[in-house]
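Example 3.2
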Amino acid sequence: MGYGAAMANFVLVHGAAHGAWCWERVVPHLLASPAVDAVVTVDLVGHGTRLDAKPLDAIRLDDYADDVVREVETRDLQDVVLVGHSMAGVTLPLVVPRIERRLRRLIYLSTTNPPVGQSINDLMSDPLSPVSRELDFETMFCNDLDDETTSWLLDQLGPEPPGAMVEAARVSPASPGIASTYVLLEQDEALPPAFQRQQIQNAQPDEVVLFDAGHSAFASRPKDLADLFLRVARL
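Structure, written as tokens:
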């Protein structure tokens, strides 16, 4: 796709136990760019404002993909920069084939990217995973946050539907033909850099960009993260 004068639209997809709220500090910085038309933050079913929209044990990965596609198609968004954080790495591959012609770029922000036949839970058996290391949320998500921001984040975390964690990926995380960037978070305690590099091998992005922040980069360095998104989107 050629990058002309068309304005870009960002669609931001949260990870496990989070919601659209996690992007609220990034959004105004993206909207401040004259090259950005809209920024859409998706509340996946079972999260955020949609916590009770469907029984948690009935939610599957297709529900997550449907949520993202619905936002894009209902708003008729074009030139989309699709950003996924953490567990969203298993959702984005399901979304891409359905909106491929609308996409400008994929950005994987410290994501888990299971290959076909493996689940998020399978990846959590890795000794570098937070489950294997028995980390709590504060350690995983807040290692570079101040006390106020830590409280803000921890107060809003919710449960993660169990089915989405154990469901095997059936679409490769690699997306030939769609430009993609993996943002490796260098201070990440939830998904350490070595673990992220394993996910990079699965996702096969066109480029890898290093960013000096923990797993919650959207909270610790929101303006810098927004600037990074704009740069890798070639805006």
